From TrEMBL:
Its cofactor is Mg(2+). Residues 9-136 form the Nudix hydrolase domain. InterPro entries: NUDIX_hydrolase-like_dom_sf, NUDIX_hydrolase_CS, NUDIX_hydrolase_dom. PANTHER family: 8-OXO-DGTP DIPHOSPHATASE-RELATED, GDP-MANNOSE MANNOSYL HYDROLASE. GO terms for molecular function: hydrolase activity. The keyword Hydrolase applies. This is NUDIX domain-containing protein. It comes from the Bacteria. Gene3D superfamilies: Nucleoside Triphosphate Pyrophosphohydrolase (3.90.79.10). Signal peptide: none annotated. SUPFAM superfamilies: Nudix. It comes from Dietzia cinnamea. Keywords: Hydrolase. The lineage of its organism: Bacteria, Bacillati, Actinomycetota, Actinomycetes, Mycobacteriales.
Amino acid sequence: MDHSDTVAVRTISVSAVILSRPDGAVVTVRKVGTDRFMLPGGKWETGESPLECAVREIDEELGVPLTPDALESLGRFDTATANEPGFLLVSEVFSARMDGDPEPRAEIAEARWVTVGELREIAALPEDDCAPWAPLLVRVARERLGDPSAS
């Protein structure tokens, strides 16, 4: 059987976290050298669970110390990547509440709070044309933070 037309799917596996304030706003981040805002988080290290990765990445990127029991799993989301064309992004997404403001660190150039109203607008965008937002943010906003057409 000839499989010459089969394209291997390259995958990036990450943990991402919805960090929200009491008013429902969610923090998004933009990495150095990029122009898209996304949920904070990052790639799993060898032997690390998605939950352990989420805790580590939030502390490294934003200086927000979390404990594993502070995070709620929202499930797995498969989307296009924001900055690596041709890759599939497999994301284990968690949520946590926080007080105060995150402090951009490591590869994070900017952290920005997104209000509930802005999240509704982001949820209405098509994932393949959602700049300056990442496709994962659009999907999570739509599926987990409220469908704008339902309001």
